[in-house]
Amino acid sequence: MSIFEYNGSAVVAMVGKNCFAIASDRRLGVQLQTIATDFQRVFKIHDKLYIGLSGLATDAQTLYQRLVFRHKLYQLREERDMKPQTFASLVSALLYEKRFGPYFCQPVIAGLGEDNEPFICTMDCIGAKELAKDFVVSGTASESLYGACESMYKPNMEPEELFETISQALLSSVDRDCLSGWGGYVLLVTPTEVQERVLKGRMD
Amino acid sequence: MAGAMDLPAKGGFSFDLCRRNAMLAEKGLKMPGFRKTGTTIVGLVFQDGVVLGADTRATEGPIVADKNCEKIHFMAPNIYCCGAGTAADTEAVTDMVSSQLQLHRYATGRESRVVTALTLLKSHLFSYQGHVSAALVLGGVDVTGPHLHTVYPHGSTDTLPFATMGSGSLAAMSVFESKYKEGLTREEGIQLVSDAICAGIFNDLGSGSNVDVCVITKGKTEYLRNHQLPNPRTYVSSKGYSFTKGQTEVLSTKITQLKPKVEVTESDAMEE
């Protein structure tokens, strides 16, 4: 069994019109046994920047703690929040530093940059950045997520429509993956507000 | 152990997690595959300079992770480098050498030379004995003329009039071997490079999507991103999926208003 399949995860982020949405499943398992159904995979860096971490849960939490530490130092020195592109470079550098003994995490970064331009990107576990203009996926359900997002995504969706699309893509994909699911968590960020919703999904 | 969280790292690789990862591997957990670039990358020398070409597919095992990634990396205004192999390694090594070249330009006050980039790349890759898996096609024009080199993951290099690397290199090389001649014009060079990349795109499963071309001549570099798009997405349904509002069942909602940030700026004293 691969190290990424130890805990199971599904994370997806999509770009809309001046907004973005990032969603994850809620299962934490130890191989085939489910331990928790309210596990947090999407973390806040600052008001307009979020990171979802799929893969080994312990590395996800450690990596998140290190990133928050680096961002707080940055805020103290620069007296402002980090731009999403800068943060993506920071995550990439942190992961590549561990090139020969990596963190087993695949991050999905989503944020609103200058002029509230949405930014999403994903990386493999050693920091190879993939910037996308439409959607990025990660986790054990990634193959299903690629398919679902490829068909359901439309450019320039308004926040309500983006929420429905990302939720349907997530729920339909995790239904085809044993190791992820047990509900969904969707976070939608527009320039003025942040909407967090917990989805009702199949609990199997 | 106290130092790990206190100071930001000084640079270079850190081997903290190697022991833990080796223990996990012993317990039977498989190590992950990294994103590779599959790839067809090519370069050729024409009468006025160098033309580089690359496809745009990034793969993660058999899945296409990125349909339009950039494989032609900037090294210096007159030097570009195409990368094949592990994506993180090609990006990191080209970024690192690009920064070193910039510092060298500041120190010497001169335009960078291709052999400088070549030596920096080969010594880094050799010192990691092939574990940094980056196969590169390096091309540029400097005061000594146009140059084209290939760099292998173990650190060996070749200097060639035309070169191909990556999983699609055989397909591309067959096109070059049939049609290459010395003294090509710019249009002929771009056409030949595009043909070679298309050969890789259509015949090699690890390469696909679009053709990127970069033309470097004395004093001028043109990066033609997505020069050809031979694989358009034609199967999209015009209706698309549309979900009605409220279709997804939601258990709980929490909406937080974002406070607009107030900026404090230095202002002039009151005007008289």
TrEMBL record, chain A:
Origin superkingdom: Eukaryota
Localization annotation: Cytoplasm; Nucleus
Keyword 4Fe-4S found: no
Pfam family, one: Proteasome
Keyword Phosphoprotein: no
Alphabetically ordered keywords of this record: Cytoplasm, Nucleus, Proteasome
GO biological process, one term: proteasome-mediated ubiquitin-dependent protein catabolic process
GO CC list: cytoplasm; nucleus; proteasome core complex, beta-subunit complex
UniProt family annotation: Belongs to the peptidase T1B family.
Subunit structure: Component of the proteasome complex.
Record's function text: Non-catalytic component of the proteasome, a multicatalytic proteinase complex which is characterized by its ability to cleave peptides with Arg, Phe, Tyr, Leu, and Glu adjacent to the leaving group at neutral or slightly basic pH. The proteasome has an ATP-dependent proteolytic activity. Component of the proteasome, a multicatalytic proteinase complex which is characterized by its ability to cleave peptides with Arg, Phe, Tyr, Leu, and Glu adjacent to the leaving group at neutral or slightly basic pH. The proteasome has an ATP-dependent proteolytic activity.
Protein name: Proteasome subunit beta
Source organism: Zizania palustris
